[in-house]
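Quick one:
INPUT:
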């Protein structure tokens, strides 16, 4: 029965699609194939989420080899929602990509671009669904190597430097993760995450286990751009092709957040991570610093992609703050913001992609008067910006509200102050764009600029509209996030 094979197909379909895509001779053919494969992956992710919500955790043993002897894919509410985010964002951005990629990437490189896209998608899905720690590292390398290629294909020559910088930092992070996994294997003799979770409680006094914990925390911190390990991210987002920025901003860091959640709560356990180790203090300090410092730096950026890149560092800080609470309410807020931020940043970067396609620039000064020349594009940017700020009736408000409630539940008033301050700082840098687009004249005759084509506007507004929908109808997003929190804390039925 196909339904029983869905966990394997989630990864196998894009993995087999990559070499097929490489055989395509034209960029349009490669695009159509990539879009079809991504849509199939989205369908599979949707079906898997339905299975998880209906029957709880789902386990799949490859080749009939039961865990821990064989590789196991394991699904629960935590990774099911991440699978939906990755495949959904990929599909929507690919709808946008045909026109954008044709403009930004040379024809002879487009087949390579879409092949790398499918490999990156494979890696992200594999990281999310696998229940084997070393298998996770393998998929991490697949996604990382393909990400370097995708970033390097940007039209700006600085894209190569950004990709190289990301490669260096990513390699250091991956090395730390591999060392951590190796140390865990050395003391437990297993790589299966569920098996690790069963054996580690007896070994918490071991220096090796504590060292493994430290290596994994730092390595994953590099991958998720946790302050102050975020230095690779602004350049990577600023100089990558528009669709790559939208895809990676909405998915890659979210998968890294999932990795941190999985290891800290499921593998090591909340008692060890937030009791025996000083993780709560570390995370709350780094999360608060990320929100305040990155939001402040974003205010002074003239390249809007860099501005939103620093904003992403701040938004990661909100998720980390939710994790630091180590409570059901805090984890609900973290998972909820993980979902909502993917919608925010996906929509905002696609709107910037429309601007880049028409103007050939995303510098703040070049947007003067653009609100009247590209009204639908700028309206999408404003709506996404309001969600980023956390205005009521947007998805951003919902996750920040739950984070505030979680902090108040434990009496952590400083966290509430940080959330409010971060939102006020977001008002400043989003307002700079709005002011320039709607209230500032170019000072010279403006060249005629038409609205972006419908093929670009529809995917943009699909994500922007989702920000409004999930800001009003919260049953699905909050329900899944709440169930994910219970799974992580081990209280799910």
């Amino acid at each position: 029965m196909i339904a029983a094979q869905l966990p394997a197909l989630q990864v196998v379909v894009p993995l087999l699609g990559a070499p097929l895509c490489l055989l395509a001779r034209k960029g349009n053919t490669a695009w159509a194939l990539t879009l079809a494969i991504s849509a199939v992956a989205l369908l599979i992710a949707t079906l898997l989420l339905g299975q998880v919500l209906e029957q709880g955790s789902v386990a799949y043993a490859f080749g009939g080899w039961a865990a821990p002897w064989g590789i196991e894919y394991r699904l629960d509410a935590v990774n099911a929602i991440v699978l939906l985010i990755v495949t959904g964002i990929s599909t929507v951005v690919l709808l946008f990509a045909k026109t954008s990629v044709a403009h930004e990437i040379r024809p002879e490189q487009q087949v390579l671009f879409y092949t790398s896209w499918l490999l990156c998608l494979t890696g992200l899905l594999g990281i999310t669904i696998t229940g084997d720690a070393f298998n996770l590292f393998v998929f991490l390398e697949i996604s990382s190597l393909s990400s370097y290629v995708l970033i390097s294909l940007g039209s700006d020559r600085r894209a190569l430097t950004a990709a190289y910088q990301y490669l260096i930092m990513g390699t250091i992070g991956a090395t730390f993760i591999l060392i951590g996994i190796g140390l865990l294997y050395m003391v437990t003799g297993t790589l299966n995450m569920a098996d690790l979770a069963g054996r580690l409680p007896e070994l918490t006094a071991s220096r090796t286990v504590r060292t493994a914990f430290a290596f994994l925390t730092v390595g994953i911190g590099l991958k998720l751009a946790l302050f102050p390990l975020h230095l690779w991210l602004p350049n990577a987002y600023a100089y990558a092709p528009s669709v790559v920025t939208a895809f990676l901003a909405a998915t890659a860091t979210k998968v890294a957040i999932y990795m941190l959640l999985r290891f800290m709560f499921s593998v090591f356990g909340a008692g060890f991570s937030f009791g025996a180790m000083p993780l709560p203090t570390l995370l709350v300090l780094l999360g608060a610093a990320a929100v305040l410092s990155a939001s402040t730096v974003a205010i002074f950026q003239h390249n809007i992609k860099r501005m939103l890149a620093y904003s992403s560092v701040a938004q990661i800080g909100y998720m980390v703050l939710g994790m630091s609470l180590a409570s059901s309410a805090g984890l609900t807020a973290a998972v909820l913001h993980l979902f909502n931020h993917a919608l925010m940043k996906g929509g905002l970067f696609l709107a910037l992609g429309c601007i880049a396609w028409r103007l050939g620039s995303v510098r703040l000064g070049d947007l003067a008067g653009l609100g009247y020349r590209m009204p639908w594009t700028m309206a999408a940017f404003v709506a996404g910006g309001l969600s980023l700020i956390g205005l009521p009736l947007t998805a951003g408000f919902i996750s920040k509200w739950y984070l505030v409630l979680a902090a108040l539940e434990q009496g952590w008033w400083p966290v509430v102050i940080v959330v409010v301050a971060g939102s006020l700082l977001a008002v400043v840098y989003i307002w700079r764009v709005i002011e320039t687009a709607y209230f500032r004249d170019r000072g010279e005759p403006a060249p005629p600029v038409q609205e972006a084509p419908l093929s670009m506007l529809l995917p943009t507004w699909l994500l922007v509209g989702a920000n409004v929908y999930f800001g009003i109808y919260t049953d699905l997003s909050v329900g899944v996030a709440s169930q994910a929190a219970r799974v992580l804390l081990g209280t799910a039925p």
